[in-house]
Write a structure and sequence with these properties.
About 25% of the residues lie in helices and about 25% in strands. The chain contains 6 helices and 13 strands.
Length: about 200
């Protein structure tokens, strides 16, 4: 595997897309079952998630569980003016979401309540292309989540740090991901095979 970020991204995206749809669905079901049993998730009243696209873990399965349990769901939307993620409370995805950037379903601003900071969020599920066991995360190259988590009200310098989780297929776990000063690591990685406690939390 090419050890650069772009090389890892290309390889993992290709491997993920080669999974048969029924295999991805089975893996996503297994991951969801692991996520909803986590004590950190069960204790959280407000969670930040994301809507999947392409060959990603099917996060909509987990989101349906979040809403069925009466938890408060926060979802991101790309702000094209600031190039940052804005956050919105969503309780009816069918009526409050529409396709946005890259075909990802995003909150419709006029139908959702804006969430100004992460201060009330207790559990965060992050997307990503690849992850290492030390918590290193490789996204899609936009740096959207690193910027979100680093700004005022994010996890850096805040009074309380939300727990950072990632859901990924086992094939997305790599030995090493090059890191920059702005990259933020996750605390846990949940795959269809195991739940990994990363050194970022230790």
């Amino acid at each position: 595997m090419n050890p650069t970020k772009s090389g890892i991204r290309k390889t993992i995206c290709s491997l993920r897309e080669q999974l048969l749809p029924e295999v991805r669905a089975a893996y996503s079901t297994a991951i969801t079952e692991r996520l909803v049993q986590l004590a950190e998730y069960r204790q959280a009243g407000t969670v930040l998630g994301y809507m999947n696209f392409g060959a990603e873990f099917a996060s909509e399965m987990w989101i349906a569980h979040v809403l069925a349990e009466g938890k408060r769901l926060v979802l991101p939307k790309v702000n094209h003016h600031t190039n940052h993620l804005d956050l919105y409370r969503v309780d009816d995805p069918d009526n409050q979401l529409a396709q946005g950037l890259w075909g990802i379903r995003e909150p419709i601003v006029e139908r959702c309540e804006r969430v100004s900071t992460l201060n009330e969020v207790e559990f965060i599920l992050l997307p990503g292309v690849a992850f290492a066991r030390d918590g290193s995360r490789l996204g899609y190259g936009g740096g959207f989540y690193d910027k979100l988590l680093s700004r005022p009200g994010g996890i850096k310098g805040g009074v309380r740090r939300p727990v950072l989780f990632a859901a990924a297929f086992a094939l997305q776990i790599v030995e090493h991901i090059p890191q920059e000063a702005t990259d933020i690591k996750v605390d846990w990685i949940v795959t269809e095979q195991e739940t990994i406690v990363c050194s970022a939390q230790e």
